[in-house]
Design a protein that fits this description.
Structural class: alpha+beta
Distance between the termini: 72 Å
Number of helices: 4
Order of helices and strands: HEEEEEEEHHEEEEEHEEEEEEEEEEE
Strand order of the largest sheet: 3-12-15-14-13-16
Number of strands: 23
Largest sheet: 6 strands, antiparallel, barrel
Length: about 350
Amino acid sequence: MKRLSLMVLSGLMLGACSKEEPPPEPVRPVLYMEVKPQATENLGRFAGNIAARYESTLGFRVSGRIASRSVDVGSEVEKGQLLATLDPTDLQNQLRSSQGDLARVEAQYINAQANARRQQELFDRGVGAQAALDVAVTDLKTTQSSFNQAKAAVQQAQDQLSYSELRTDHPAVVTEWKAEAGQVVSAGQQVVTLARPDIKEAVIDLPAPLAEQLPQDVVFKVASQLEPNINTTATLRELEPQAEASTRTRRARLTLVDTPAAFRLGTAISVTLSSAIEPRIELPANVLQEVDGKTQVWIVDMQNQTVSPHPVNVISRDDDTLVVSGVKGGERVVTAGVNSLKPGQKVKVDKDSPR
């Protein structure tokens, strides 16, 4: 009996020794992000272009048929440079007619001067009548007035002829032609648009609801669409009071703090709007886990390489992001695989995780 008991005890001990130890839990790789409080709110990004702050539309000061155009759209012109001309034939004929009238009246004026001198001499010698002298003086004054009028008519005709040439009064860039060679235009009709390249600004169209609620401290960051690293900031100079009927947008004109050389007229730009806010924590929506009606995120202990759940309060959320309280700046939050983690679980931090 004693021997049988020893055999049973030995069998139990051998059975216990043959049981395998449970394997350790695998170390799970995780992706994480570092919590960084956001102190600014992004209000949106909008496309626009660089435009001249000052533009002018020129036209001829007289009517006529356009004979020639000297420059094309995009050309840079200097002060006084010829842009276009009218057919000068009619104006030249008008000038010749005025010059002929002037010559005729000038001859009459010279004759009236001579007659007035003769009558004055005769009157001074006592052989001339007062009446004759009065008639001569009156005739002199009349012809002098006609002479002055004729000279003014010639000057006006010369001015009219000079108006057949359209010239710029400041350095500019031609941005648009509104009339073609051979077209008959009236005085003052818009012919060409010029932009001054020395002062530039950014032009964008904002949705009417956003334009009506722009914060006072809004910041505009202007960047080239082709070269985003070329950028500057801007301030709002002008906001159109009414929205465009078809698009329901309001045009905003921005004064550039700096004007990079790459910001040429017509350059396509993107403008990002932001404003200062109370610091808040903004996280991707996939970091959140809901357990028993409570919300939590998983925090990575970088020293021990473990994870632990941490309760948070969701302030606001949308499809992609959420704003929370309960975590601090600098903490690492797991961004993938939160539903397969356990408290205190060992993890392997991916070196390629976003930081």
